[in-house]
Specification:
Number of strands: 8
Strand content: 15-25%
Structural class: alpha/beta
Oligomer: single chain
Distance between the termini: 36 Å
């Protein structure tokens, strides 16, 4: 992702500008998607080599987002995720990002920008799906971004193909109560 594009998406989000409707993506309820596995798996390492295992977050609600660094709607959603995470991580909640970027250099450049402009309290694990040793069973991801919300027992509560909508955030917040 170009630094200028990233900073523009951050500025647009800070000003409360919405993502254009052309990027709005269609939501598919979990029932319309392929059947959810009995247990979700996500293991590997974050982009810096720190181990990630979804099972470590059992007992916490989890929002997992699949994205690419070049996707402006994705980076806007990630900005909202960071804000939500910073405000709610004490409520048994965690975000996990999974980069679908073809090249590791793209996600590392994105993460370097995140380190420079995002408060540390809003940082959460981001894995690279193409990394050696990465394993997950979330299936093929056709839309960017694609989000999975798992409850505290890690059962699928919601799948959103495309940007996370206002009612998605409301339902996620309510589920944390």
């Amino acid at each position: 992702m170009k630094k200028r594009d990233f900073l523009q998406s951050m500025a647009a989000g800070a000003l409360g500008l919405s993502v254009p409707a052309a990027f709005a993506g269609q939501a598919k309820p979990a029932a319309a998607a392929a059947p959810a596995p009995k247990a979700f798996t996500l293991k590997g390492a974050d982009v810096y080599g720190k181990a990630i295992d979804l099972q470590e977050y059992m007992g916490k609600s989890v929002l997992i987002s699949f994205f690419t660094a070049e996707c402006i709607p994705c980076t806007n959603d990630l900005r909202l995720m960071r804000e939500f995470y910073g405000a709610n991580k004490a409520r048994n909640y965690v975000n996990i990002g999974v980069s679908l970027d073809a090249n590791r250099a793209d996600i590392l450049a994105y993460m370097d920008l995140v380190k420079q402009v995002i408060p540390a309290a809003q940082h959460f694990p981001i894995a690279w799906r193409n990394a050696k040793g990465h394993v997950d069973n979330f299936g093929p991801i056709a839309n960017q971004p694609t989000h999975f919300v798992l409850n505290r027992e890690h059962k699928l509560v919601r799948r959103r193909n495309g940007i996370f909508k206002a009612d998605d955030w409301d339902e996620l917040w309510t589920d944390l109560a």
